[in-house]
Amino acid sequence: MKEPDWTDLKLLERFPFPVWRSGRDAQRDDFNRAWLAFTGRTSEQERGDGWTVGVHPDDLEALLHRYREAFEARRPLELEYRLRRHDGQYRWVVDREAPFVDEGGTFAGYLGACYDVTSCKQAEGQVAFQALLCNTPSSPRIWTGESPSGTGTPKRSFNGPRRK
Hints:
Layout: H1 10-13, E1 19-22, E2 28-31, H2 33-39, H3 43-46, H4 57-73, E3 77-84, E4 90-101, E5 107-116, H5 118-134, E6 142-143, E7 157-158
Antiparallel strand pairs: 1-2, 1-5, 3-4, 4-5, 6-7
């Protein structure tokens, strides 16, 4: 049975999101244009374990552990980790991956597609911070002006939502 290659997967080469493929040995062996543009590295640099150079050190061990478990069980997996972009900035990505089969129906490896979710993570952080502020017993007050007498007593203030 022949090994599938990107000529068999031309659609993924032009896919607008970073896509990778691993063979039966769990080693990543091919990357589409979007992956290479995102990382700023060559396919040769990324092959095998080379792609792990771009994963944030705090995320790498857990990512590899979960990937190996899913690979051995031949089950789909979703990972969230930080991947270094070509400009050196780490971006949060969701990597959705699944096993694929060759023309004969035999397991041939994994395909994964990554989506940059950094802006979502930042928004989650802002919402969590605001929730923390609003749910703190000593919520900060926002002063909107002094009273006409100039005593410093506020005309209006905001203490956050009232708790029941």
